[in-house]
From TrEMBL:
This is AP-3 complex subunit beta. Subunit of non-clathrin- and clathrin-associated adaptor protein complex 3 (AP-3) that plays a role in protein sorting in the late-Golgi/trans-Golgi network (TGN) and/or endosomes. The AP complexes mediate both the recruitment of clathrin to membranes and the recognition of sorting signals within the cytosolic tails of transmembrane cargo molecules. AP-3 appears to be involved in the sorting of a subset of transmembrane proteins targeted to lysosomes and lysosome-related organelles. The gene is AP3B1. Belongs to the adaptor complexes large subunit family. Residues 218-244, 618-758 are annotated as: Disordered. It comes from the Eukaryota. Residues 218-239, 618-628, 739-758 have a biased composition (Basic and acidic residues). It is a peripheral membrane protein.
Length: 1041
C-alpha cells in the first residue's frame, strides 16, 4: 500500500501504521518504505510520515540521514505544521555529524513567524544540548531571543529549555520577569508549571525574605512590657520595616488565580510557590486548594498528601480546619491511608485528640493489617506528643494485647515498650501482662521487645524475670536471631542482679550461644562471658559490668518521617523520594540585601503603551478585576501607602503586557480558538462567583446542588450556555448586559454584604460542600437588590437542577398507621399516626405527620397537649394546638411537623392530658423522609453521573420473573418510599427520583432487570446513610412474591 500510486492507499497505510504505534506495537521494520514517502506532495501523508519518523528516527539513524535534504527543504515549507514537524524529526536524529545542520535549523525556526514553529525550536534546543553540550553558548543566544517572545504558546517551552541548558543564568530572566508574570495565566498548563517553578527559584535570589515581617511582629509582642525609653532605643537600632518589592507582589498576585486550575500540577506548583516565597500570613489560601485535590485519582492524592505532610509539621494551623478531609476511607489504598495517618498525627493537639483517638480505634480494626499496625504507631506518637493522653493511649494499647490478630498485638508490644521507656514510672502490672504473652506471640520483634522490657525492669519484677529466662532457655535454639540476642542480654542483666537464681541458667544460655550458627550471636556470647563472669584474664571493664548493662537508656524519639524533607523544594521528585534526584535545582537562601531592582526595568513597556490605542487602556480595567477581586480585601488591609502605589503601577504594566499578548495570540492560527474559550471561561467563572455569592444569601438550601456543579469551569460554562442559547453572540451580549447591571448595583451590593457578613469571603470554585462543617442553617437578611437583577441572577443560577427538577405529587399514599400510644398505656387515650406524604405547612424542611386521638373511656379527657420534648441535636417539632376536651368514644385528627434532619432517629416527647403525661416516640421509615421529584430521563442520567463512587450503593435481587412486571415494581417501590417515577426509554430499566425533605439532596433509584430472574437495585445519593438504609428496606420487598 505504501508503494501504491494512489494517495488514498498511502494515507490509509500510514493511518494503520500510526495506529500500530499508538497501541505499542513495533513498526520499525517499515522504516525504509515510510521514509520514501517523506517527499510526498500530499500534506496529510506528509504529516503522518513525520509522526512516524519522530518515533523511529533515533533507532534507524542511517536510513533517516538519507532524507536529511528533504527535511531541510521542508523547513522552508509554507505550511507551519510541516516546518515544525521537519524540525522535530531533524532534532530526533541523534547523530553528532548533523549538529551544525540542527543548530542552523533551530536559529532559523526561532525567528519564524509562526509561534508553533518557535515553540518547536525551543523543544529542539533541549535535544541538541543533550546531544552536544559544547553548543551551550550558541543555544543560550537562541534562548535569550526566544525569552523576549510575547506569545503565550512559546513561553512555557523556552523556560523549559532555559531550565535544562542554563538554569544559573538568572540575568536572562531579569528583563522578561514582568512579562512572564503577566503572561502566566494564559500559558498552557504544563508551561505554567515550569514557569512557576523557575520564578520560585528566581524570587529566592532577587527579593528579601517576607518572613522578616512576621519576626518583627513577634519582637513587638515581646517588647510589650518594656519601658518607653528602652523601646525607643531598640526601635532606633532596628532596621527599617519590611516593605515587599512590587515585583515580588506581582508574582504572588498573578499566580493566585491559578489555584482554581483544573490541572493538579498547576495547583501544586502555585502552592509550593506560596509556601516558599509568600508572607506566612498569606500562605493560608493554599490549604483549601490542596484539600480540593484530594478528590483526584490516587496518584495525585499521594503526591499532594506527601506535600501536606511536610507543611503540616511546620504550620499546623493551615490544615486544622480541614481535619475531617484527612479521615481514612475504606476504599483508600494503603499508601494513601498511611499518609493520611501521618497528617492526622501532625495536626493532633489537646483540642482534637479525643476525636482523633476515636477515629484511630476504628482504624485498628481494619482488615488491612499494615494499616492497622501503622495506626498503632500513630497512637504511640500522639501519646508522646500530647502528655494529657499518654495514660489513656497506654491503657488502650494494653487492651489491644488481647486482640486476636497477631500483627496488631506485636505492633502494640513494640509501641508500649517505647512508651514505657519514656515514662520510667512503676508499670509493673503491664510488664507482667506482657510476660504472659510470650507463650502466644510469635512475631520476633514483639518477643524481643518484651524480653528487653523485662531485662530493663528485672529488679521491679524479681519473681517473673528468672522464670521467663528459664522458658527462653528451653526454646533458645528455635528462636529468631533478634530474639536470641535479647535472651543473651536478659541473661546477663539477671546474672548481675540475681545471680543466685540465674547463674546456672546464664551459663547454659552462654554455652548455647557459643556454638550458634550466627556469628553475631557467637560474638555477643564471648563479649558477655568476659564481661560478667570475672576471671584472671578479664580486664578492668568487668568491674563496671552492671553500669554498662543497666545504664539509663535515653528514650527513643518518635519523629515524623517527613521532618527532614523540608529542605527539598515542595512538589519535586526529590521531595517525593527524599533524596536528591538528577537535575534537581536547589532553592537558595534569601539574600540579606535585595539586588538592584532596576535590572527588571525594560523599555519594552513604553513601546507597548505607544502601540495600544487610547481606548483600549480604559477597557482593560473590568478584565483585570477578575484577577484582583479577591486581592482587594488584602490590599485594603495594608496600612502602608507605598504598597498601594506599587500595586497601582503594577496593574498598569500588567494591563499593557496582557493586551500585547492578546494581540499576538489573536494572530496565531492554532491558539485562536483556545484563547476564545479561555476568555469565555474566565467571564463565566467571574459571573458565576458573583451569582453564587448573592444566591447563597437568598437560598441556603440549594448550596449542595450548587457546589456539585462548581467543580470545573467547563461544567459551569456549558450549563450556562445550554440554558441560555447556543449562539455565541447572544451569550456575549448577555454578559455585557450582566456587567452593566452589576455596575449599577455595585454600591448597593457592597452595603448589603457589609450588613450581612462583615467577614464575607470570596466564593470561588474552591468553596466545596465538605469544607464547611455541618451545622444548622442561619437565616440571613434578604439582600437589597433590584427585582430585575434578582430575576437575572435566578436565570443564570449555577444549579441547573432548580429549573429542571421540581417536587411532584405523591404517586401513592399508604394508609398504614403506627401505634403512638396504646389505650392500655394511655389510660383510655389511644393515639395512632401516619405519614400523609404531603408538603408540611409548618416548614419546608419538616415531614408532615397526622395523629389520630381516640377516647376509649366513658368520660371526657381534658387538655390534650404536647409536653416535654427530648430531641436529638438539630431536630425540631411543630406541635399541634392543645385540645380542650375529647368526648367519650370521640376521635380527632391533628397535624404535626417534624424536622428529622434526614435521619431515622426517634423523635421522643410527652403526650399529656390534664392529669397524666405519657412518653411516646415517632420513628420515621426512611421512605417517608423523601419528597417525590419530577425530572426527565436525560436529567436523571446527568445527575446520576455526578453521584457515583462513594455516593452509589447497589445490590442484586433474585425473585420470580412475574414479580418484575412494571406495575409490580412500581407498586412495591412507592409503597416503601415516597418517590416519583422518571420516564424511561428502556423496558428493562425503571427509574425513580426523590429528594430528602431537610437538605434537598437528590435520591436516585434504578431497578435494572437482568437476564433470568435477577435484577440490580442501584441508589445514588449524597446521603449515603439514608441510601444504604433504603436499599436494605427495598431489597426484601422486591425479592418476595
Amino acid at each position: 500500500m505504501l508503494e501504491s500510486n494512489k494517495d488514498s492507499a498511502k494515507l490509509d497505510a500510514m493511518k494503520r501504521i500510526v495506529g500500530m504505534i499508538a497501541k505499542g506495537k513495533n513498526a520499525s521494520e517499515l522504516f525504509p518504505a515510510v521514509v520514501k514517502n517523506v517527499a510526498s506532495k500530499n500534506i496529510e501523508i506528509k504529516k503522518l510520515v513525520y509522526v512516524y519518523l519522530v518515533r523511529y528516527a533515533e533507532e534507524q539513524q542511517d536510513l533517516a540521514l538519507l532524507s536529511i535534504s528533504t527535511f531541510q527543504r521542508a523547513l522552508k515549507d509554507p505550511n507551519q505544521l510541516i516546518r515544525a514537524s521537519a524540525l522535530r524529526v531533524l532534532s530526533s536524529i541523534r547523530v553528532p555529524i548533523i549538529v551544525p545542520i540542527m543548530m542552523l535549523a533551530i536559529k532559523e525556526a526561532s525567528a519564524d513567524l509562526s509561534p508553533y514553529v518557535r515553540k518547536n525550536a525551543a523543544h529542539a534546543i533541549q535535544k541538541l544540548y543533550s546531544l552536544d553540550p559544547d553548543q551551550k553558548e550558541m543555544l543560550i543566544e537562541v534562548i535569550e531571543k526566544l525569552l523576549k517572545d510575547k506569545s503565550t504558546l512559546v513561553a512555557g517551552s523556552v523556560v523549559m529549555a532555559f531550565e535544562e541548558v542554563c538554569p544559573d543564568r538568572i540575568d536572562l530572566i531579569h528583563k522578561n520577569y514582568r512579562k512572564l508574570c503577566n503572561l502566566l495565566v494564559d500559558v498552557e498548563e504544563w508551561g505554567q508549571v515550569v514557569i512557576i517553578h523557575m520564578l520560585t527559584r528566581y524570587a529566592r535570589t532577587q527579593f528579601v525574605s517576607p518572613w522578616k515581617e512576621d519576626d518583627g511582629l513577634e519582637d513587638n509582642e515581646k517588647n510589650f512590657y518594656e519601658s518607653d525609653d528602652e523601646q525607643k532605643e531598640k526601635t532606633d537600632q532596628k532596621k527599617k520595616p519590611y516593605t515587599m518589592d512590587p515585583d515580588h507582589r506581582l508574582l504572588i498576585r498573578n499566580t493566585k488565580p491559578l489555584l482554581q486550575s483544573r490541572n493538579a500540577a498547576v495547583v501544586m506548583a502555585v502552592a509550593q510557590l506560596y509556601w516558599h516565597i509568600s508572607p506566612k500570613s498569606e500562605a493560608g489560601i493554599i490549604s483549601k486548594s490542596l484539600v480540593r485535590l484530594l478528590r483526584s485519582n490516587r496518584e495525585v492524592q499521594y503526591i499532594v498528601l506527601q506535600n501536606i505532610a511536610t507543611m503540616s509539621i511546620q504550620r499546623k494551623g493551615l490544615f486544622e480546619p480541614y481535619l475531617k478531609s484527612f479521615y481514612v476511607r475504606s476504599t483508600d489504598p494503603t499508601m494513601i491511608k498511611t499518609l493520611k495517618l501521618e497528617i492526622l498525627t501532625n495536626l493532633a493537639n489537646e483540642a482534637n485528640i479525643s476525636t482523633l483517638l476515636r477515629e484511630f480505634q476504628t482504624y485498628v480494626k481494619s482488615q488491612d493489617k499494615q494499616f492497622a499496625a501503622a495506626t498503632i504507631q500513630t497512637i504511640g506518637r500522639c501519646a508522646t506528643n500530647i502528655s494529657e493522653v499518654t495514660d489513656t493511649c497506654l491503657n488502650g494499647l494494653v487492651c489491644l494485647l488481647s486482640n486476636r490478630d497477631e500483627i496488631v498485638v506485636a505492633e502494640s508490644v513494640v509501641v508500649i515498650k517505647k512508651l514505657l521507656q519514656m515514662q520510667p514510672v512503676q508499670h509493673g502490672e503491664i510488664i507482667k501482662h506482657m510476660a504472659k504473652l510470650l507463650d502466644s506471640i510469635t512475631v520476633p520483634v514483639a518477643r524481643a521487645s518484651i524480653l528487653w522490657l523485662i531485662g530493663e525492669n528485672c529488679e521491679r519484677v524479681p519473681v517473673i524475670a528468672p522464670d521467663v529466662l528459664r522458658k527462653m532457655a528451653k526454646s533458645f535454639t528455635n528462636e529468631d536471631d533478634l530474639v536470641k540476642l535479647q535472651i543473651l542480654n536478659l541473661a546477663a542483666k539477671l546474672y548481675l542482679t540475681n545471680s543466685k537464681q540465674t547463674k546456672l541458667l546464664t551459663q547454659y544460655i552462654l554455652n548455647l550461644g557459643k556454638y550458634d550458627q550466627n556469628y553475631d550471636i557467637r560474638d555477643r556470647t564471648r563479649f558477655i562471658r568476659q564481661l560478667i563472669v570475672p576471671n584472671e584474664k578479664s580486664g578492668a571493664l568487668s568491674k563496671y559490668a552492671k553500669k554498662i548493662f543497666l545504664a539509663q537508656k535515653p528514650a527513643p524519639l518518635l519523629e515524623s518521617p517527613f521532618k527532614d524533607r523540608d529542605h527539598f523544594q515542595l512538589g519535586t521528585l526529590s521531595h517525593t523520594l527524599n533524596t536528591k534526584a538528577t537535575g534537581y535545582l536547589e532553592l537558595s537562601n534569601w539574600p540579606e540585601v535585595a539586588p538592584d531592582p532596576s535590572v527588571r526595568d525594560v523599555e519594552v513597556v513604553e513601546l507597548a503603551k505607544e502601540l495600544i490605542p487610547a481606548g483600549k487602556a480604559k477597557k482593560e480595567n473590568p478584565a483585570k478585576k477578575f484577577y484582583s477581586e479577591s486581592e482587594e480585601e488584602e490590599e485594603s488591609s495594608d496600612s502602608s501607602s507605598d504598597s498601594e502605589s506599587e500595586s497601582g503601577s503594577e496593574s498598569g504594566e500588567e494591563g499593557d503586557s496582557s493586551e500585547d499578548s492578546s494581540e499576538d495570540s489573536s494572530s496565531e492560527q492554532d491558539s485562536e480558538s483556545g484563547s476564545e474559550s479561555k476568555g469565555e471561561n474566565k467571564r463565566t467563572a467571574k459571573r458565576n462567583s458573583k451569582i453564587k455569592e448573592e444566591s447563597d444569601s437568598e437560598d441556603g438550601e440549594k448550596e449542595n446542588e450548587k457546589s456539585k456543579t462548581s467543580n470545573s469551569s467547563n461544567a459551569e460554562s456549558s450549563s450556562i450556555e445550554e440554558s441560555s442559547s447556543d449562539s455565541e453572540s447572544e451569550s456575549e451580549s448577555e454578559s455585557e448586559i450582566e456587567s452593566e447591571s452589576r455596575k449599577v448595583t455595585k454600591e448597593r451590593e457592597k452595603k448589603t454584604k457589609q450588613d450581612r457578613n462583615p467577614l464575607a469571603k470570596d466564593i470561588s470554585l474552591l468553596d466545596l460542600d465538605d469544607f464547611n462543617p455541618v451545622s444548622t442553617p442561619v437565616a440571613l437578611p434578604t439582600p437589597a437588590l433590584s427585582p430585575s437583577l434578582i430575576a437575572d441572577l435566578e436565570g443564570l443560577n449555577l444549579s441547573t437542577s432548580s429549573s429542571v427538577i421540581s417536587v411532584s405529587t405523591p404517586v401513592f399514599v399508604p394508609m398504614k398507621t403506627h401505634v403512638l400510644l396504646h389505650r392500655m398505656s394511655g389510660k383510655g387515650l389511644a393515639a395512632h399516626y401516619f405519614f400523609p406524604r404531603q408538603p408540611c405547612i409548618f416548614g419546608d424542611k419538616m415531614v408532615s405527620v397526622q395523629i389520630t386521638l381516640n377516647n376509649t373511656t366513658d368520660q371526657k379527657i381534658a387538655n390534650i397537649h404536647i409536653g416535654e420534648k427530648k430531641l436529638p441535636i438539630g431536630m425540631q417539632i411543630h406541635v399541634f394546638n392543645p385540645i380542650e376536651s375529647l368526648e367519650p368514644e370521640g376521635s380527632i385528627t391533628v397535624s404535626m411537623g417534624i424536622d428529622f434532619c434526614d435521619s431515622t432517629q426517634t423523635a421522643s416527647f410527652q403526650l399529656c392530658t390534664k392529669d397524666d403525661c405519657f412518653n411516646v416516640n415517632i420513628q420515621p421509615p426512611v421512605g417517608e423522609l423523601l419528597l417525590p421529584v419530577a425530572m426527565s430521563e436525560k436529567d436523571f442520567k446527568k445527575e446520576q453521573g455526578m453521584l457515583t463512587g462513594m455516593n452509589e450503593t447497589s445490590t442484586v435481587i433474585i425473585t420470580a420473573p412475574q414479580n418484575f412486571t412494571p406495575s409490580v415494581i412500581l407498586q412495591k417501590v412507592v409503597n416503601v418510599a415516597n418517590v416519583g417515577v422518571v420516564p424511561s426509554g428502556q423496558d428493562n430499566i425503571h427509574r425513580f427520583a426523590a429528594k430528602t425533605v431537610h437538605s434537598g439532596s437528590l435520591m436516585l433509584l434504578t431497578v435494572e432487570l437482568k437476564e433470568g430472574s435477577t435484577a440490580q437495585l442501584i441508589i445514588n445519593t449524597e446521603k449515603t446513610v439514608i441510601g444504604s438504609v433504603l436499599l436494605r428496606e427495598l431489597k426484601p420487598v422486591l425479592s418476595q412474591g
